[in-house]
Structure formats: structure tokens, C-alpha cells
From TrEMBL:
Alphabetized InterPro entries for the sequence: 4Fe4S_Fe-S-bd (IPR017896)
Upper classification of the organism: Archaea, Candidatus Iainarchaeota, Candidatus Iainarchaeia, Candidatus Iainarchaeales, Candidatus Iainarchaeaceae
Name of this protein: Ferredoxin
Domain of life: Archaea
Organism of derivation: Candidatus Iainarchaeum sp
Domain 4Fe-4S ferredoxin-type: 4-33
Family annotation (Pfam families): Fer4_15
């Protein structure tokens, strides 16, 4: 089973709500930005970012959220 890392470069998020509309199980709105549910925080190239590891079962809906992000600031990377 493939594993993926979702990265949310939260500093860049403009709070449009597209990710939460497409995938409300994993994305919620918090104030003027979205939040990746069950994520952790780390330092990234654009400031503090949220990340979470997922498997195939959550890939499609999170890639759709990433594709809909107008910035973009959501990335789904295959890690194995
Ligand atoms: S789609 Fe992108 S810009 Fe819009 S709320 Fe989600 S992460 Fe932020």
C-alpha cells in the first residue's frame, strides 16, 4: 500500500474554503485559514506548515483538495 505525505503550507492559505468543501472529513476552516485534521506542525520552506501521513484510502479526496486549492498551498507527495 502506498503512503503519502500531505503538506499544508498554512502561511500561504488564503482561506477560500475549497479544500474543506471538497473533503470535509480531512479539512476544516479555522478562522481565516483551513486546518488539516489530525495533522502535526513542522518548519517548511514557507514558514510553519501542517503535515500528515495517509495511505491510498485517503489519497483521492486529498489530491482533489490539492488540485482545487487556488494558491496552491496543499501538496500530496508519495513517500513509498
Ligand atoms: S483550498 Fe487552499 S487556500 Fe483555500 S482554504 Fe484550502 S488550503 Fe487554504
Amino acid at each position: 500500500m502506498a503512503k503519502f505525505k500531505i503538506i499544508h503550507q498554512k502561511e500561504l492559505c488564503i482561506g477560500c474554503g475549497a479544500c474543506a468543501a471538497i473533503n470535509p472529513a480531512d479539512w476544516v476552516m479555522e478562522g481565516d485559514k483551513s486546518h488539516l485534521v489530525d495533522s502535526q506542525k513542522e518548519k517548511g520552506e514557507n514558514g510553519e506548515q501542517e503535515f500528515r501521513f495517509i495511505d491510498d484510502s485517503k489519497y483521492k479526496q486529498n489530491q482533489e483538495a490539492a488540485d482545487a486549492c487556488p494558491v496552491p498551498c496543499i501538496f500530496v507527495k508519495k513517500i513509498e
